[in-house]
Amino acid sequence: MVAAGLALTLAGGCEGYKSPGNLPTVSMQIGTGKYTIEIAKTDAHRQRGLMERDSMPENWGMIFVFPDEAVRGFWMKNTRIPLDIAYLDAGGKVVSIHQMKPYEQTSTASKGPAKYAIELNVGQAARVGLKEGDVVVIPVEAKETDR
């Protein structure tokens, strides 16, 4: 399973923050919120995710891009911050949303096939009104994996 795991400047405390993993970033609208999202689209980046970070700005997150749709499962090994995870199908439709606790090693699975997973600070999905069935526009930079 993938370990749970953003450098455009946005308002909301992100100024000067850079991706600790030096990942590319993209601006994304998620629900009513605008986020800077790190793009994890290689096996190594997906496996590292947000591990070993002590914090993340409020309007920041990570999108995990997979080569295909499948039921996905994430766990929180070495992940110190509580997170929301939204699983999305290839069209950007939210198939499920879950909250994950730091260091939890039980896999949190999607309710259906997903091509993408987006992690945000815990409570962000509810704050921006994101719910199952919503469609999130996936930016072109985050649509495909790097093989």
What does this protein structure show overall?
The chain has one domain (2-142): Jelly Rolls. A hairpin with a 5-residue loop joins β6 and β7. The protein is built from two helices and nine strands, in the order βββαββββββα. It has 147 residues and is mainly β. The two termini are 18 Å apart. The model is unreliable at 1-14 (pLDDT under 50).
Describe, in short, the structure shown:
The chain is mainly beta and 147 residues long. The protein has helices at 43-48, 124-127; strands at residues 2-3, 25-30, 33-40, 60-70, 73-75, 83-88, 94-100, 108-109, 114-121. It has a single domain (2-142), classed as Jelly Rolls, CATH 2.60.120.
SSE blueprint and pairings:
Layout: E1 2-3, E2 25-30, E3 33-40, H1 43-48, E4 60-70, E5 73-75, E6 83-88, E7 94-100, E8 108-109, E9 114-121, H2 124-127
Parallel strand pairs: 1-5, 3-4
Antiparallel strand pairs: 2-3, 4-9, 5-8, 6-7, 6-9
What characteristics describe this protein?
2 helices; Jelly Rolls; single chain; disordered N terminus; 7% helix; 9 strands; 147 residues; mainly beta; three-stranded mixed beta sheet
